[in-house]
Amino acid sequence: IRGRCCIQRLDRMNQIAAVFDLNGINDTPPFSLTKQEKDTFYADALYGLTKHHYANCVQYQKILDMLGFDPTIKHNLEDIPPIPVRLFKDYDLMSVDKSQIIKTMTSSGTTGEGVSNIFLDRVTSTNQTKVLTKIVSDFIGEKRLPMLIIDTKSVVKNRNLFSARGAGILGFSMFGRDITYAMDEDMQLDFDTVDAFLKKHKDENILIFGFTFMIWEYFYKKLAETDKQLALEN
């Protein structure tokens, strides 16, 4: 009886679960919503995603069942249970068939520990691109800018299996042209390459992209240790 009840409940969830649809919100200018509007939208979106993952991810369904959380009932935002990020290291959490996975992103991890695996299907990957384009274009406009990346090119070599760092670089690269990497293969700041890039585009606005720890550890601190100056006014 318990097994039949679980199957019937899952069938109901499959009927009402839906993948998050961005078509409506994507026409809204970024940062134009009031806090109340954003809170309402976010709560509805997260509730819809909770139902979707419950219906399509066995491990996630077991977690919510164990917590006594019923996703068929609409809950307040603060009542939707978070899950430990550690689970992404211990389990392959996905809400689509494995055959639909087109990319796998990994965390950097630390020595002796496993990495987190984040699986992307085509719908999710496309949605990420749409949202990123909408937000960044609001800042820099529609025109691509000369782009300096504070990282090494080797981090993006494998397009199907790469770190979140590599994914971020690839995502933002679509806003740039004449893309230049500031670091060599040994993670050393290539002053000559950076200086040549800046001189080439001295009369243009440029886009500089890098993760905070990369900019601080390998760019800012390296510049601070030397007497070399870079023209970054633009």
Textual characterization of the structure:
This protein has 234 residues and is an alpha/beta fold. Helix content is 44%, strand content 12%. It is built from 8 helices and 6 strands, in the order ααααββαββαβαβα. The chain has helices spanning 2-16, 35-56, 58-67, 87-90, 122-140, 164-173, 191-200, 212-225; strands at residues 101-106, 117-121, 145-149, 161-163, 176-181, 207-209. The chain has a 3-stranded mixed beta sheet with strand order 2-1-4. It has a 3-stranded parallel beta sheet with strand order 5-3-6, sandwiched between helices. Helix 1 crosses helix 2 (35-56) and helix 2 packs across helix 3 (58-67). The protein is globular. Mean pLDDT is 82; it is low at 1-19. Residues 23-225 form the Acyl-protein synthetase LuxE domain. InterPro entries: ANL_N_sf (IPR042099), LuxE (IPR007534).
